[in-house]
Amino acid sequence: MSLVELIAQADERGLAAAGVSCLDRCVPLLGGDDEVLRPLWASLAEDGDGWGERVAKIRGHACDAATGAGAEAVSGPRSGPGAEAEAALLARRMLAAVPAERSAGALREWADTCSVAALDIHRLLDVADDGNTSVTDCREGRTEGMPPLVTAELRRQVTVLELLAGHGAAGVRQALEVSAEGRRVLQAVVSRRARGRT
Q: Which domain of life is it from (predicted)?
């Protein structure tokens, strides 16, 4: 089943997990600590009470940390700092769009937006990308020729949705582990690119 189909069929908890996990993997671009989204992960394992308050608190904390982190105007070649600036902008937009209400309708739109943004971020930062990668094709299951970072991000998005569809709240811990792995990978990529510019 394609990623697009999985998102279309996901329930409220699965959609929330899909969006949170995409954002969690991109936390290195926001300049915050790795645990900033823990309250939302905890909410996924619960009944969702206090979701709006947790979202407001996290958004304020993460936005403060992100001030000045990649906030410059997007410019320069994709292989230079412009790619990081564009990726950081996409991550901040994901954070700003977290719905204050944990409803299936709002979450489905957000999860879909986060899916595209996270894949775009990995495409921007993948030195193996030739510029012809189609995120739409990737999400619809046509993955031939996808660069490694994008392929791995697609796999993680699919895995999270499958875990929540198959196990409900019991799948949240495994989804968190999948996301943490992806976050470490992206952090390594960002660090390596930074070292390459010094």
A: Bacteria
Q: In the chain, how many domains are there?
A: 1
* Domain membership of residue 49 as a residue range: 3-196
109 to 16, 63, 81, 163, 170: CA distances (angstroms)? 10, 22, 30, 20, 24
162-172 burial, b if ≥16 CB within 10 A, otherwise e? bbbbeeeeebb
Q: pTM score > 0.85 for this model?
A: yes
pLDDT tens, 26-41?
999 987 678 889 999 9
Q: Give the type of residue at 8.
A: A
Please tell me the distance from the alpha carbon of residue 22 to that of residue 157, in angstroms, as a whole number. Answer: 7
- Distances from the Cα of 107 to the Cα of 32, 39, 100, 103, angstroms: 23, 17, 10, 6
